[in-house]
TrEMBL record:
Designated name of the protein: NAD(P)/FAD-dependent oxidoreductase
Keyword Nucleotide-binding: no
UniProt-listed PANTHER family: NITRITE REDUCTASE [NAD(P)H] (PTHR43429:SF3), PYRIDINE NUCLEOTIDE-DISULFIDE OXIDOREDUCTASE DOMAIN-CONTAINING (PTHR43429)
Taxonomy, superkingdom: Bacteria
Similarity annotation: Belongs to the FAD-dependent oxidoreductase family.
Keyword Flavoprotein in record: yes
Length: 410
């Protein structure tokens, strides 16, 4: 008599959870009976490309990673638009919003993150949205068809991508950012000035060093009031000020959480039957918002779910790249430097190119590239492998091909 297969339940149908399932199916395709619950009524899609969906450069079917048929072909039970609302760890059972219960032997949490919202007066007025999923994009596209003026709050990656997308849809867009430096978590001041000049050249209005005090309007949003008393007229407001790990479900179930769901180097939680990956987790005090570490987490977690428990997750330096057509921007590592570090800088104002590499002794520790980011991934490899770059020091700014042609392989 055949023994029943162990049951794997996945909470979250996003990129992190499904990448883990894909890796697991490569390693052990017949090990588990798999059930997936997702809050959105779609298959799995590439959230990174939402900005191109907003700008009209991609259509919804072009950003799909796994359509519902993919799950059926692999015997995966998929529940779309039906999030899990409770986890009974004693019975090892989850229950969905629609009342579906599934038992598990292993549970994978991939609930991702939720947008941070501004706690100011008027923040519940219609016309104020976040930028997190396909529904948000559809709301923005519909608003662009009916209204003229938009305000985007947040000068980080998502905010800039949202502002650019709405501008391409024909709206008059004002980008409001509390710092005087755009992408202040990813860029130094010089690169940020080049970026600001580019965005203004595209027709965006920038309000930097501006604090949002209130949202105002009668029946829907009409204006954003800033702390200095001035106002930005807006028929649509997009809030893109960051994200927070979505941990409420696991907190209610009693799993140990801090800022995120705390996991060890195998992506296992304090409950040995429960694993977690992606933006919902906290590993060695860090939380995550970029895709590269999430892919590595999926790889490690899948190996342990597949019972090939030899891998460990280690956090490395990751890179940031802006997804705005016509803007080539890349940053990685400790690009601000500090005591004992040295900067290598190249400026070419005519071509709009700026490069800054930060060295700590013979090793590269940070990089900012604007206007020419072709060597970005190579610089990240040098940072993560702590490569001795002393032999290329005078040529490092010119990139991989030039260094290898004149100084050998790394």
């Amino acid at each position: 008599m055949n023994r029943p297969r162990p049951r794997l339940v996945v909470i979250g149908n996003g990129m992190a959870g499904m990448r883990t399932v894909e890796e697991l199916l490569q390693l052990a395709p017949d090990l588990y009976d798999i059930t997936v619950f997702g809050a959105e009524p779609y298959g799995n899609y590439n959230r990174i490309l939402l900005s191109l969906l907003l700008s009209g450069e991609k259509q919804a079917d072009e950003i799909m990673l796994n359509e519902p048929a993919w799950y059926a072909e692999r015997g995966i039970e998929l529940h779309r638009g039906d999030p899990v609302v409770s986890v009974d760890r004693a019975r090892r059972v989850v229950r969905s919003r629609d009342g579906i219960e599934r038992a598990y032997d292993r549970l994978l949490i991939a609930t991702g993150s939720r947008p941070a919202m501004l706690k100011v007066p008027g923040n519940e007025l219609p016309g104020i949205v976040s930028f997190r999923n396909i529904d948000d994009v559809e709301h923005m596209v519909a608003s662009a068809g009916r209204h003229r003026r938009a305000a985007v709050i947040g000068g980080g990656l998502l905010g800039i991508e949202a502002a650019n997308g709405l501008s391409r849809r024909g709206m008059q867009v004002t980008l409001i950012h509390r710092s005087h430096v755009l992408l202040n978590q990813q860029l130094d001041g010089d690169a940020a000035k080049l970026l600001a000049r580019n965005l203004e050249g595209r027709g965006l209005a920038l309000r930097l060093g501006a604090e949002t005090a209130a949202f105002e309007g009668k029946d829907r949003i009409e204006r954003v009031r800033l702390a200095d008393g001035s106002c930005v007229e807006a028929d649509l407001v997009v809030i893109a000020i960051g994200v927070q790990p979505d941990i409420a479900l696991m907190q209610e179930s009693g799993i140990y959480c801090e800022r995120g769901i705390v996991v060890d180097d195998t992506l296992q939680t304090y409950d040995p039957s429960i694993y977690a990956v992606g933006e919902c987790v906290q590993h060695r005090q860090l939380t995550f918002g970029l895709v590269a570490p999430v892919w590595e987490q999926a790889n490690v977690c899948a190996a342990h779910l597949a019972r090939f428990g030899h891998r460990r997750y280690r956090t490395g330096q990751t890179a940031t790249r802006l997804k705005v057509t016509g803007i080539d921007l890349y940053s990685a590592g400790d690009f601000m430097g500090g005591a004992g570090t040295e900067d290598l800088v190249m400026r070419d104002p005519r071509r709009g190119i700026y490069k800054r590499l930060v060295l700590d002794g013979p090793r590269l520790v940070g990089a900012v590239l604007y206007g020419d980011a072709r060597d970005g991934s190579w610089y990240v490899d040098l940072i993560n492998h702590r490569t001795d770059v002393a032999r290329w020091r005078d040529r490092l700014l010119f990139g991989q091909a030039y260094c290898q042609a004149t100084g050998g392989q790394p």
